[in-house]
Amino acid sequence: AAYTLLEGENRRPGSKIYNRVDFQRIGLLGHSMGAAGVLHVAAMEKPNGLRGKIKTVVSMMPYHGTTNALLEAFAGGKDKLGCDISATPNATLIISAEQDPTNEPIG
Question: What's the pLDDT at 78?
Fold first, then answer.
């Protein structure tokens, strides 16, 4: 939705960003659940995804579910979003913590 809104505003003559956005250089940044979200949106095909439109992704501490039994009870269980990030853009940076008890490294 945000990408479509940005496209529309870039084409609308009265807009503050009229003809100012370079859609060949769009990147996404997210943290925690948003970090997992940007990985998936960049890898997903249309209509919900932006595969081929996103040039780079920065994913900080991507939360994709937990296998910790104690946290499972509080965090809602093993809500894995999936780990197939092979379709993300070539320029993808994933920042993760090796010993984070809540957010295990993705991959």
Answer: 44
